[in-house]
Design brief:
Blueprint: H1 3-37, H2 40-71, H3 75-79, H4 85-117, H5 125-150, H6 153-174, H7 178-181, H8 193-218
Helix pairs in contact: 1-2, 1-4, 2-4, 2-5, 2-6, 4-5, 4-8, 5-6, 5-8
Length: about 220
């Protein structure tokens, strides 16, 4: 088993996706500019565009680095190298996580900056924005887990569809939780128990997805 091979696999994915990831980050920055400088319509459009950019970024990264290897039949070659299943899984998780989380973090910080520094935007939207951004992060790691463990385009696409449906359900559900809804228009940042519970569940989903990925990968015997 060679650590250098793990590093090369990570570097390969970074190299292949460096331009697309920068493109998505650029799209996120355009969205942030709409939030910061646009009117009400532009603000709403920018919010939708940010969600779209992050979903597209996650799907592109996973499809290119995981599902694509199965379709192009490069996975059997990779597994013929002196590398264990655990190391291969670690390489895929680290490469994909850094590619997505880097862009996600830049855009998330930008969203918080707009809420805190644009005049007229309630600071109370910070908790709602955090919940939504954490949901997108959690759904990405679930998508990555499904892609790595199944290597199936169908299962991966189905996961994207399901996560988008759940996103709309989450938005509807949050609007019907009085303790969360009451924070939307506040002129100060509010963290309450209901919001923190949702964020905790999202964080737990991320950890569970990562753990299950390694567990299911360890049980595999065939990569052909």
């Amino acid at each position: 088993m060679s650590t250098s091979i793990v590093q090369r696999l990570i570097s390969k994915d970074w190299y292949l996706l460096r331009k697309p990831v920068l493109g998505y980050v650029g799209g996120g920055i355009v969205s942030l500019m709409l939030l910061q400088f646009g009117g009400a319509a532009a603000f709403n459009f920018g919010s939708i565009l940010i969600i779209t950019v992050l979903i597209a970024l996650g799907m592109h990264v996973v499809m290119a680095t995981v599902v694509g290897e199965r379709i192009e039949q490069t996975l059997p070659f990779v597994m013929s190298l002196p590398i264990s299943i655990a190391q291969y899984t670690l390489a895929k998780i680290l490469a994909n996580a850094t590619l997505f989380v880097g862009g996600w973090l830049i855009i998330s910080l930008g969203v918080c900056g707009v809420i805190l520094f644009r005049e007229g935007v309630p600071h109370g939207l910070i908790m709602l924005s955090t919940i939504m951004l954490m949901y997108l992060l959690a759904s990405y790691f679930v998508l990555l887990a499904v892609a790595v463990t199944t290597e199936s385009m169908g299962a991966t696409i189905a996961t994207v569809i399901a996560s988008n449906i759940l996103l709309n359900m989450l938005m509807y559900a949050l609007s019907n939780v009085p303790s969360i809804k009451s924070t939307y228009g506040s002129d100060r940042v509010i963290w309450n128990a209901a919001g923190l519970e949702v964020i905790s569940v999202e964080a737990a989903v991320i950890l569970l997805a990562l753990a299950l990925t390694f567990i299911f990968q360890a049980r595999k015997t065939d990569f052909l």
